[in-house]
Amino acid sequence: MRDASFQALQAAARSARAPMGSRARLVIAGATGALGNEVLRRLVGLQQYAATQVLAREPITAGLRGVGATLVPSDDPQAWPPGAADTGVVLFDPPRLFYGRERALWTPTPQQLPALAQWMRRSGVRTLAIVLPHAQGRLPESLKRGLANLDEHAVASLGFERLLIVRSAQKPRGDGVRGWGSALARWMLSITRFMVPAREQPVRSPKIAEFVSAALQLAPPGIHVAASELVWTAAQGDVRAAVRAWLARESG
What we know:
Largest sheet: 7 strands, parallel
Number of domains: 1
Order of helices and strands: HEHEEEHHEHHEHHEHH
Shape: globular
Low-confidence stretches: 1-21, 171-177
Helix content: 25-40%
Radius of gyration: 18 Å
């Protein structure tokens, strides 16, 4: 079964494209999971980037015009040679194991963010978007702990023209108790999920992807942090209008 992310790339590659020099180049780290797939699908579908590169740990032969995979030589971005891009996107969703193509892609850990941001800066990236996962509770414990300690100040000091941080993660509700008894209790309580108020439910991946896409198109120079409450509110209506209003309030 082919990964939907690369199906989206193929569809974009078959469409008409503007001259290479007229649009920016995009690099995505962590184009995996439900959220990474949606962000990749939407950004490539916009056809606003002359080239799109996804970071991979294994060779991938996509045979796509204008898109492709950049093979990382190691898990240490500080040792990577510079690439060539104008816009970078970082996501942390782990790959879905039943998608073979996703397993070949490289996904950063939160601890690697400062080094990855430095590599992107060396590669010419002027706009960086960092997207937190929409369902933090589904991540491994090590990733959840890392997300609480993101060194955003170090990233902000690197001199990006635009830095976007989208906080769409939700705090896990578990009490930390393990064992079959707590698992049974969680299963029994799961039937009440349909009675949870909409405001307390996670935002769907397509809406987060739409928010990220609009922010990349509309955000002026500077550092812009979107709180999870803002993303939720935007997802209830016209996302683009909500992003425009948020940015107007920031600059006002």
